[in-house]
Write a structure and sequence with these properties.
Length: about 325
Amino acid sequence: MELHVIFGAGQIGTPLAEMLLAAGKQVRLVKRSSSGFPLGVEALSGDAADLAFCHNACSGASVVYHCMNPEYSARIWEVLLPRYMDNLVAAAGNVGARLVVLDNLYMLGKTDGKPMNEDTPANPCSKKGEIRASVAQRLFDAHRQGRVQAVCGRAADFYGPGGRLTLFGDFFWKPVLSGKAAMMPANQYVAHTYHYIPDVARSLATLGCANELSGNPLWMLPCQPVVTTRELACRFDPHLGREIRIKSMPHWLLKPRGIVMPMMRELAEMTYQWDEPFVVDDSRFRANFDLRPAQIDEAAKATLEWARSAYLPR
């Protein structure tokens, strides 16, 4: 059995582990805490900032997945993201494993509404975007130099089961399920690509298990057709049985609110993504792999079922 090692057991790493297990793979799941591992995985606790630990964790691996995302803070990212990447490049390269990296689109910056694909150049306009661009370049340099066989899958904002830290997570579902309006720190009427969490996990598994990657180290992961944030929220209405109300939070409120809610302060520099159409072109992935995103209604129903189980009292 192939050994697939997953670093990060959050909203993507956990469903990815379950999908690989279902496909008959041996799965080692690596995270900092020692609890909350899904049944069937080989559990390993430790810190990916420790190079020796990474070498030990990757022992015997055929594929290594980087699904870690530390606390949403530019200050923390600047320290940990390069270290995580360098350590996994070294550890995966040492055992000849394919390194599959999940990344976002922050490094692409503003695109004037043009669809983003694998050829869109890095043009960061935020501190977090600059960090992501630098770390991605480290990965591609290592791949080009033959130090590791790497492939990177990029996705936009997530939604779906397990997405507690997304725009459609805690800040959204807690008020909505109590009958109140959700506060959205984004323009809800601008077209914006959202990636459904199970689709992201399935796509990473596809990249990890593929026999041939056509020499491409970078892929835009498959997504549903682009809609506005308002339109995405409306998909939940039939399953909820009523209309979801959303209030847009003015950008100027984010930094003051960041005094008591650090996440809001960190979001302030990223609001440009909702000031213009933010559109992913996933045609290259679709043309090369037999994988399609979940049906829209199926995704909405599964997301609401998860939200009810996660946020309503039992």
